Amino acid sequence: METTITDVIVIGAGAVGENVVDRAIAGGLEAIVVEHELVGGECSYWACEPSKTLLRSGAALRAAQRVPGAAEAVTGGLDADAVLARRDARVGDWDDTGQIRWLDGIGATLVRGHGVLAGERRVRVTAPGGDEALLEARHAVVVATGSTPRLPDIDGLALARPWTSREATSAERVPERLAIIGGGVVGCELAAAWASLGSEVTLLTRSGILSKFEPFAGELVTAGLRSLGVDVRTDCSPDAVRRDAVDAVVLALPGGAEVVADEVLVATGRRAGSEDVGLETVGLAPGDWIDVDDTMRVRADGLGWLYAAGDVTGRALFTHQGKYQARAAGDAIAARAAGAPVDDAPWGAHVATADHAAVPRVAFTEPEAAMVGLTAAEAARRGIRTRVVDYDLGWVAGATDRADGYEGRANLVVDEDRRVVVGATFVGQDVAELLHAATIAVVGEVPIERLWHAVPAFPTISEVWLRLLEGYGRPGHEGAA
């Protein structure tokens, strides 16, 4: 078998793999990327892009209905066919031609097929037709194979042909009845999307709604989903699931109750996409999250050439964090290949330090919930002495201008010893756009005293920053309420 030699090989051409390749090439290296599905990966075709497109129409309609004058102009509901057609266009009808043009434009080489590690710095690729090719890297191989949905151990579930996020974001019709198992971001977003499109949605969750956010986020989102007609049942998980004779899904609940639906969506977490990547050929365990340092290099003896980035590391399962890790990895690989210094100190140029304490996350549900950094509970677990400041977003002029009866809440978690913000959460209509300012404050460790001089424009929802700081206490008036 002929061997093709290059500088860097990336297994996986999703958003993370694309960014590794881009940075490596920008650093003067040659790169090959291997992909067995669509270039652009999960985010582009079955996750972020289609789900947010499905959500947007309902959010826009509700925003108009909350503003007198605009509300009177709304004379109908959503056109589901038009929403699905917009979704199809947004994902390019699941055609990756445009993404391939982008790879060509940066000088990357795409190899179609299933790539697996085949020993030190080697990757074997099996093409769709069965032909095999062997690739060898001079400097680095990067595993960027993402994650896959995890099915809970519920009797009969796997045989009931459940939807995962893939089926739920690419469905060609609106199910009349949809059951969702899981109350995390995916479950809450797709509950809002399909309820807006006319589905009768039942959401079952054992661990609560948005349990990784501040508790008030789960409370407000639960109320918001119920306002859309979603039947939210917390502390509830099915004992068994089956398809009946007429192809309906029957979920048997504790105590003998049942939920009957046309489809069941499982949104109970992800597992590492590392089962069929050849990890065993280099001494690693298939199926495990791949342990890496902050330059994304694998932490194992003799594997200084192997890197991993994105979901497969298990560090922070978000597209934006995966792309951040990819930039660190690509830059670090290029620096090491050139014999240049690697800036691997915390917050250095070649590391993904933010994964540990400054991860931004948004649930684009009803209403939006956005947070960055630590919740108050997590900060306490880490031994940080904190003060938490809360504010009702409905009292902010920019919010009340946006919608009559605006409901929302914001909070800051402040490290009292360093006097910096370590966490922030916002819940309400359009709050996702507040998040980056909070991310900058957390990453930059901006002193509370300095934040007072970041003046929010009036009237915007960002004025909540001023109100939160007033709640914390003015400089020279520490402790004032």
UniProtKB/TrEMBL annotation:
FAD binds at residues 52, 115, 145-147, 311. GO terms for molecular function: flavin adenine dinucleotide binding; NAD(P)H dehydrogenase (quinone) activity. Disulfide bonds join 43-48. Binds 1 FAD per subunit. Its cofactor is FAD. InterPro entries: FAD/NAD-bd_sf, FAD/NAD-binding_dom, FAD/NAD-linked_Rdtase_dimer_sf, Pyr_nuc-diS_OxRdtase, Pyr_nucl-diS_OxRdtase_dimer. Keywords: FAD, Flavoprotein, NAD, Nucleotide-binding. Residues 359-465 form the Pyridine nucleotide-disulphide oxidoreductase dimerisation domain. Residues 7-320 form the FAD/NAD(P)-binding domain. It comes from the Bacteria. The keyword Flavoprotein applies. NAD(+) binds at residues 182-189, 269. The keyword Ubl conjugation does not apply. Pfam families: Pyr_redox_2, Pyr_redox_dim. Belongs to the class-I pyridine nucleotide-disulfide oxidoreductase family. This is Oxidoreductase. The lineage of its organism: Bacteria, Bacillati, Actinomycetota, Actinomycetes, Micrococcales.
